[in-house]
Known about the structure:
The protein has helices at 12-15, 97-108, 137-140, 145-158, and strands spanning 4-6, 20-23, 30-35, 48-51, 58-61, 83-87, 90-94, 111-113. It has 4 helices and 8 strands, in the order E-H-E-E-E-E-E-E-H-E-H-H. Helix 2 (97-108) packs antiparallel against helix 4 (145-158). By secondary structure, the protein is an alpha+beta fold. It is globular, with a radius of gyration of 17 Å. Strands 2-3-4-5 form a 4-stranded antiparallel sheet, with no helix packed on it.
Amino acid sequence: MSERFRDPGTSWYDLLADEILMRCPRCDGRASVLPLPGGTESGIFAPRRLLCPACGYVRGWEGDRVGRYDEPTDPYFRLPLWLRSPCCGQTLWAYGRRHLDLLEEHVAARRRERPLPADTPGGNRGRPRTLVQSLPGWITSAKHREEILRAVARLRATLDVP
């Protein structure tokens, strides 16, 4: 277990640039949502493609709105995420591997540090609220540490399953 965690300043928007793992609407297997390279849009509104390697399901997304960031669904297609598990009477969820790693590092740490203040070099000026700053209290509570880490381990085990 790590003794120290410093908030890296990762926002929800940053996570949308990564692969988002979700349940395929056709076969319920693990599917991925990825930004399409070479599009005219960039960032969170870049065109996306949903692809399921198990059944070959493919669907595109081009839009100017994304779903909410506080639900266990993918914000583009609004389908259930692959990485979700009951935990502490709630649902613990993550978009993908980087999100899961960040949750695990934060929860496991005994000492948690906030990101640099906005008025210091390298600070958070002009950036949206960080993912860690937005975590609900039940995740940040030390009394749930062990149960959350067990749930993270269950979710991590599903990453190796095709």
